[in-house]
Amino acid sequence: MRDRAFAVRESASLLVRRIEHATPADRDRAVDALRAFAILGVVLGHWLVTALVFDSGTVRVASPLLFRPRLAPISWVFQTLAVFFLVGGRVATKSHASARARGATYGQWLRGRLARLFRPVAAVLAVWLLAAAALLAAGVGVDTLHTLVKLVLSPLWFLLVLAALTVATPIVCRMHALWPLAAVLYVDLYRFGFGGPEWTGWINVGAGWLVPYCLGALWARRGDGTSLRAAGWALLLGGAGATALLVLFAGYPASMVGVPGARMSNLNPPTAAAVTFGLAQCGAALLLLGPLRRTLRRPVLWAVVALVNLSALTIFLWHQTSMIAVSCLGSLVGVLPGVHTVPDDGTWVAARLGWLPVFAVMLAMCWTAFRTYEQPGRGATHVVNESGPARGKELRSA
User: Fold this and answer.
1) Which residue, of 129, 133, 184, 385, has the greatest Cβ tally within 10 A?
2) CA angle 155-160-165, nearest 5°?
3) Residue 168 in domain
4) Statement: residue 148 has pLDDT above 80
5) What would the DSSP string read from start to end of 100-148?
6) Which helix (H) or strand (E) segment is 81 a member of?
7) Eight-state DSSP code of residue 31
8) pLDDT per position as a tens digit, 302-331
9) Binning pLDDT at 50, 70 and 90, where does residue 392 land?
């Protein structure tokens, strides 16, 4: 047993050294850290605020935020999509500029990015197509199947928006973030202030996430100049202040995620409050660049960040399946607190925290099975470059 533990430590130490050796000296590790934080924030957020309630032979989705609104600050920590789009705008802009410098056409650049983005999506769709057929054959009700499939597929909207913004990157590079922000404010004013139709809110799916994407493109064009820290403080204070005003005086929900059964959602579709909250997050991200760069000089911490980035899409695409698998397997034992019960009190939250490691183990199993679809043929000495999880590149042979 002692020899095995020693062998594991040696293997981990070797992996850390190989990743450190494979990383160019000029790589901005803070960008990778922000992307990893955004992905893990979404995963943990879903695991904490989504419950599969087994009730009279059917399965439905519930959220502790509906029963305990005071838990809304959880969504402030784990709703991190704005940071992902900020990083996405930066890396796509730099990637496009680099491709042009190499003589690649826009079509060549775009095909490469989209192919690497949707290859792992195809794996999820194929598995769940087979799973849905098997569940129906086993007698699972249509309503339950709809709940499970929707839980898995609904996060894919985020990738569709990212793909659309990637297509528009050459235009976004010349667009100021104030334009989509003005569109979001106008849509909300028309929808909530003048009784406009509900469908107009879906305009904000594109406009709302275009705001941080534009900020990322601006960051790529101007670099890390002396004005970056001032911009970070302006975004953080201005975004946080605007969000507070919208929540306290304009009737917007305090939760920054969708809550099943709630009167209004800040995320489905995005509202002005979600966008201003995203601006505050972007400001905080810019202010954290310096501390992150210093912290990630430590090889062990950098290795963790690099490995998360290597499989960012795999982690994102399979985290809901992991939770569903644990819930379904657990139902064979009985009704488990924190997994199958209604999330209407503090005991559910405490129990759910205890289940997070189990979800993580199941996700690790999914990662082992499907990670090759994201980075086919790449080993641990290859980490994603700043173009993000949609594009892998060998940094240096170890």
Assistant:
1) 184
2) 130
3) yes
4) yes
5) HHTT--HHHHHHHHHHHHHHHHHHHHHHHHHHHHHHHHTT--HHHHHHH
6) helix 81-101
7) H
8) 999 999 988 899 999 999 999 999 998 998
9) very low
**What letter would DSSP give residue 201?**
G
Burial class (CB in 10 A: 0-12, 13-18, 19+), 261: exposed
Q: What percent of the chain has pLDDT over 70?
A: 92
16 neighbors 299 (Cβ within 8 angstroms):
yes
Integer Cα distance of 356 and 74 in angstroms = 15
Nearest to 213 by CA among 254, 162, 258, 143: 162
DSSP string, 4-49: HHHHHHHHHHHHHHHHHHHS-TT--HHHHHHHHHHHHHHHHHHHHH
pLDDT in tens, 199-217: 999 999 999 999 999 999 9
> From CA 317, how far away is CA 334, in angstroms rounded?
28
Number of structural domains found in the chain: 1
Residues whose CB is less than 8 angstroms from the CB of residue 356 and which lie 6 or more positions away in sequence, other chains included:
44, 47, 48
In angstroms, rounded to a whole number, what is the distance separating the alpha carbons of residues 232 and 250?
Answer: 26
Q: Closest by alpha carbon to 384, among 52, 64, 87?
A: 87
CA separation for the pair 380, 306 (Å, rounded) = 9
Looking at the domain assignment, is residue 383 inside a domain? no
32-75 confidence digits (pLDDT tens): 999 999 999 999 999 998 888 887 778 888 889 888 888 888 88
Distance, in Å, from the CA atom of 332 to the CA atom of 54, rounded to the nearest integer, reads 12
**Strand, helix or coil for residue 53:** strand
C-alpha span between 309 and 301 (Å, rounded): 13
Question: What tokens appear for 385 in the block?
Answer: 């470059």
* DSSP character string of 220-267: HHH-S-THHHHHHHHHHHHHHHHHHHHHHHS---S-SS--TT-S--SB
At 116 the pLDDT is 81
Residue 199 belongs to domain spanning: 26-373
- For residue 79, tell me if it sits in a domain: yes
